[in-house]
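Lecture notes, continued. The same structure-token format from the folding unit now serves as the input rather than the output. Read the line below as a description of shape only.
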């Protein structure tokens, strides 16, 4: 190792000597008090300050980048927190409506949450988070604060499948509130329902409310269903056809009630 150091010094002796002399010269110059020396010192200070500016700029930029990252992280947290607060507020409003509805409906009902909606083996259905362990059995009516949802067709210990009103095979006995005419409601697609075979003498008008008739072993009377959207004659003009817009929007349904018997 010492031989390598010796060889290095021997080979580069002139360069090492020149560096030492330059260093000693700078030390001697900078240690003087002459005006020329002070001017040189100031020039050197400005030069070194200029040379170190990029480093300071990089440090400052890096600090701004880190600060920007932290601000973005905090902003995302605030957005998420705000969304949580809005959801909690909306959920609280729904629960208040449900409590008021449950107190006013006059039936023994079980609140349940919708955990899935779509096509199942029985057709269009929703899946609830309550089942046999909660007293839910087959053929119980299911409603929301807006109106009729469907009927329970299958149950597990902690879940229940509800056949909903917009399935092609669903039928519901209804009554038009003003005219008191009774009919059978069935879906026709695009979120609409239809009642056919209405007597031509019946006076039914758009905007008339539709409720359950009570002529059913499942649904009690006077549960809200929807409102008449259109009334027209059949092609043969032997009867009238009423198009009904349901109150319940199944796509956005979150909480329901099972009417217990």
């Amino acid at each position: 190792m010492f031989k390598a150091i010796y060889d290095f010094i021997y080979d580069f002796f002139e360069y090492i000597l020149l560096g030492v002399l330059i260093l000693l010269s700078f030390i001697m110059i900078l240690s003087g008090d002459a005006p020329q020396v002070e001017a040189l010192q100031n020039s050197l200070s400005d030069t070194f300050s200029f040379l170190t500016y990029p480093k300071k700029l990089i440090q400052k930029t890096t600090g701004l980048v880190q600060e920007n990252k932290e601000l973005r992280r905090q902003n995302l947290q605030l957005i998420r927190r705000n969304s949580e607060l809005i959801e909690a507020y909306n959920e609280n409003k729904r629960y208040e409506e449900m409590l008021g509805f449950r107190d006013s409906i006059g039936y023994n009902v079980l609140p349940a949450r919708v955990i899935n909606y779509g096509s199942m083996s029985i057709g269009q259905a929703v899946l609830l988070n309550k089942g046999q362990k909660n007293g839910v059995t087959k053929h119980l009516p299911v409603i929301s604060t807006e109106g009729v949802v469907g009927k329970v067709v299958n149950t597990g210990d902690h879940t229940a499948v509800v056949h909903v009103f917009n399935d092609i095979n669903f039928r519901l006995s209804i009554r038009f509130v003003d005219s008191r005419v009774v009919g059978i409601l069935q879906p026709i697609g695009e979120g609409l329902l239809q009642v056919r075979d209405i007597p031509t003498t019946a006076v039914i008008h758009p905007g008339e409310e539709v409720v359950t008739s009570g002529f059913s072993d499942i649904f009690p009377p006077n549960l809200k269903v929807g409102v008449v959207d259109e009334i027209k004659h059949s092609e043969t003009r032997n009867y009238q056809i009423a198009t009904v817009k349901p109150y319940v929007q199944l796509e956005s349904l979150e909480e329901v009630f099972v009417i217990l018997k």
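Point for the exam: Residues 108-164 form a domain with the Thrombin, subunit H fold (CATH 2.40.10.340).
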